[in-house]
Amino acid sequence: MEPQLLMGNEACVEGAIVAGITFYAGYPITPSNEIGEIMSRRLPRLGRTFIQMEDEIASMAAVIGASIAGAKAMTATSGPGFSLMQENIGFAAMAEVPCVVVNVMRGGPSTGLPTLPSQGDVQQARWGTHGDHPIIVLTPSSVREAFDLTIKAVNFSEQYRTPVIMLMDEVIGHLREKVVLPQPESIDIINRARPTCPPEWYRPFEDNKSGVPLMAAFGDGYRYHITGLTHDEMGFPTTKPCEVDAAINRLFKKIRQGFDEIMLCETFLTDDATCVIVAYGSVARTAKSVVLQLRTAGKKAGLLKLQTLWPFPRRAIEGLPQSVKELYVPEMNMGQIYREVLRVNQGRRTVRKISKVDGELITPQEMVQVVA
Amino acid sequence: MAYRNINVYQYLRHEKKFPLIWCAGCGNGIVLGSIIRALHTLGLPKDQVVMVSGIGCSGRTSTYVDVNTLHTTHGRALAFATGVKLARPELTVLVVMGDGDALAIGGNHFIHAARRNIDMTAFVYNNNIYGMTGGQMSPTTPQGKIATTAPFGNIEQSFDVMRLAEAAGATFAARGTVFDTDRLDELVELAIRKNGFSVLEILSPCPTIYGRHNKLGSAVDMLRHLDEDTVSLDEAENIADAIKSGKIPTGVFVDIDRPEFCESYAALVKKAQGK
Amino acid sequence: MAQQYEIRLAGLGGQGIILAGIILAEAAGIYDGKFVAQTQAYGAAARGGFSRSDVVISDEEIHYPKAQMLDLLLAMSQDAYDDNLKHLKPNGILIVDATYVSQVADTQVYAIPFSRIARERFGRENVANIIALGSLSQLTSHVSEQALEQAVMKRVPKAHREMNRQAFEAGKGAARAALRLSVRPGGDEDI
After folding, report:
1. Single pTM value for the model
2. Touching pair B, C by Cβ (3+ pairs < 8 Å)
3. How close is the nearest chain A Cα to the Cα of B64, in Å?
4. Residues A277 and A215 reside in one and the same domain
5. What's the mean pLDDT when you consider all of chain C?
6. DSSP conformation class of B178
């Protein structure tokens, strides 16, 4: 493919289209607007569906409805809209409906800083909806990654029948870079496993080896019930402790079993490092230039870049070499991943956070001052 | 009335989900009967029908019907249904909601689904109360009536579902009661048949909660009230006369034609593709 | 560390600052084949609020994507000038729209009345950004003139291509004149 200048939000749309997204519902909000706008141009031309809903609650609901009817569906939003989507994200987790939610993070809380970056929604992406539930959250740090990880997000959602959140910070959403996109034919696309058995044998929420039940689309001849209530294998509401326990535990089991595959990270110069910066999103870019600066100055610095935030990639932290004595966690929030690093570190290494919440990306100078 | 003798059991998940959750005397089962008879009369294959419901007593309707059923979050049934319908426009989509579900928490989706004119049928079971949560006042609780959150009488004006639906752009709006089931069967059929967003409000008694708080008597008494307090538009000269009589008018209030959303979208796709 | 060339375009919402940044990035990245990162910041007001666009150009992969020490600053409004001058490197290139930037400290500056030229030559101020890009093509060697012109032609609407080509030319001419005159602050009368 030819090189092109693309914005993170544009690359996200391109990735979604390649991944086979056939349905988009959304509501305007800065700084994610380009995603909806480009979808409204691109999807009709491809014979796919775009709809602007009356709010983010409805957008999330429509996405779930479309997915249940067999579409690959997604939405995009930012902080306040993400808050509104939370109840239905929980529905998607409980009813195991594949869908992708892109949240281009801006400063918060509340209306906050609509046009300025933040990474303040990291814990909300994990725990925003009520109740115990697993979730997959990915975060890109370049325009190319916005493309690649959107495809991953759609694939994971289909493979694990789960909502997948893609957190982009505003810097990445609005960053333009030169990218060469791969040929669509070279990209692996995953589609949800559908039942092939006779309809009367179909048990829509039955456990299997993968923990992911086969999913029939409405209209395909498998008439069944979907509910946000805790349900049995047939999809009907249940309050029997043994059935409730099995249902909730299976939700966790399916993600736990895929942990190695879901956990996406990159290391840079960590092999002999004594200190490692653990970063994600646009801040990982600052961190990489800081690592290079520190190396020039003779300090053995390395970078662990997280592309998956949830389930938290603890094995990547645990797998860092023995030489690493210090971990630094720079974030455009008050330390939301820092606390996770602390948790899995179990006191083995020194962990320090670098927080910045003024609506500006952390600069290399600011980071060097702390790490050097 | 031959059609009333159909075997409703073939439309029910009778081996899986019965008995019903609803109280004795509740009108919800009567509405369910009407919907099933309409499906049968219209000859709609069960695989091609989707029933989407919200939360509350009415929301449980979907559990019992042997079609594609989706029990959603409170107030959001129409928004979920919009996704289903757009993804597969060939399916017949029925949306079952209560008065609080459709008009309070789901009010925004209600007016926008009507404005969009997407082909689906919105059934609003109106029992004037939040039954499942124990009897709190709803947007259709009449002024002066008692609810657990209006112990001194409701001071708020209630919604007129028909006028709301018409103003928002619904192409079909009708009101029926669970007392006059013959007429209700007809209205359900008309509403499903309509190509566009149709609203069918069904007045239905809640003797256990609403009737008890407001001393309206037994379930049978409440059914009798439904008969006495309503007047058919066919009998009244016009809507204004019906309202002047102090009774609640029933029948078809709106039946107009407007471009349907899925069809408009299909045309937009052709335009975008330069066909 | 890679040698990066950092450009900031700053002005008001409605002046086409962001579009100019995109064109500049496309010229450097796609037509000149370099690494490029373009970012932007803007206020809530679509017209009249602050607007700025950073373009970082490099021969190597760019990590930190924002401009920090500017090699070139184009200021299209007085506020943009006042706010951003402190980020300009000591030997950095300063270009201002003399139509709106009148209070300029006594340093080397190319003061060209982009908006006035746009108004007088084209009857509309909104091509001032393209005129500015034309000038920029003459004042820095880090983006080639051909690349910039190609990028302009690709990004502007078909119906307005000819006008934008002329605007780009007008900008080039104005910059050459400015170079000859080595214009000092406030000296836009000579053009």
Report:
1. 0.96
2. no
3. 9
4. no
5. 91
6. S
